[in-house]
Specification:
Helix content is 77%, strand content 0%. It has 448 residues and is mainly alpha-helical. About 7% of the residues have low confidence. The protein has two domains: 192 residues, Growth Hormone, Chain: A (Up-down Bundle), CATH 1.20.1250; 210 residues, MFS general substrate transporter like domains (Growth Hormone, Chain: A). It is built from 16 helices and no strands.
Amino acid sequence: MDTMRASGGQEPWGLRWRSSTYFIVATMAVAMLTDMYLYGFLVPILPFVLEHRLGLDASLTQRISTALLSQSALVMVVASPLIGSHADRSGAKRGWLLFGLAGALLGSLIVALATSLFVLFTGRLIQSVASTGLWVVGFATLADNVPADELGKMYGFVTVAIGVGTSGGPLVAGVLFDVGGYWVAWSSVLFIIVFDVILRCLMLERPRNKGETVRAEPDGLEPDPETEALLASGNPEQQNGRFVGGVVSYFCYAVLTASFDTTLPLHVRDAFHWGSLPAGLLFAAFQGPAVFFSVPVGWLKDRVGTRHPTTIGFALLVPLMWLIGVPGDERFPWACQEKYGSIIYSAAVTGVGIVICLLNGVGMMEATQAVDEIQAETPGIFGPNGGYSRAISISSISWTLGMFVGPIFSGYGTEQFGYYGMNCVLAGMCGLCSFTAFRNLKSSVPQR
């Protein structure tokens, strides 16, 4: 084993549990939780940072907040393919993960100490690069170390951790800031990063045998580095049907998710005169089912592939997205009454939260399985270290673009066509995605 050779033939302490699938998954889950925690942590205290620590006028808070939070999307689009390419060439991923964690810590310290806009944006830039590296290399590490027939289930565990980090960051930051002040709130960031450091240092990669990915050379010669570089630099994954289907599905999944963030609070305020608390409960109904259903859905995809769950998920979203647009629209008087309309709307949002779990992990799973499929057909095409990081980086870009396009489309669509019209367009998009998933995704899971 590589870990034994690296230590001079002596087995590292705790090799069995430190390199076990479940410990690696747990480490990556905590890593994703930490990343989402850091992303959401700043949201509730950002007005204080801008107006009190930086001394900016309150009228600029919304504009600068939007620019600061959008910075991550731009960084991911630019940095993902670069990080993916270099991570695949380097082989071992543990060093990349530790390097990313150091960047997250440095960026967090800069943001916490910032007293000018330049320093604040610099700290957020470092955080964003570290976050991009974590998502690309983290999911590639899972793909390298988890058996193909367990990927869906393990991605389900990671999805739960991401949900906890997404909701926990703003909640903990808000509570600690109100109770103990600015620096007490930031102490939670230090705690969670230290815990993450311990897990990443303990983790030992135990990847599958990659011998089949290297093309054999005649007469015992070593592989030609120039040939390896040419093979590794190609983009055959873009020609793979299941990869394209996964990318498209992941993009549309992100658009749907972002559209709720943009339009739900304003719609319930205008249609039902609801405040922040009922809107927050609706978001809990939308996001909560993932905690309970992500792992079972992942297990299902390990057994039957992603084709049928994804196809059914998008197909069920068509009537649900149409129904979400009905309450409050004058063309449907039976749903305009506040009592009945609010019940219909709440039930539809909850239904979408349940059904959308069928889409979890589709981009990452198809990226991983497309690489396995291509390598089985053309051994060595991605080079000696495989192509997971590059494929996952493209999948990550599709999600990021969806999260970027979603708010713009849903906000502009609501202004131009109304809330009902915008949701009808989203329902049509789901119908097209259902057809695309059925046509391009596969029911089988490639064996390694």
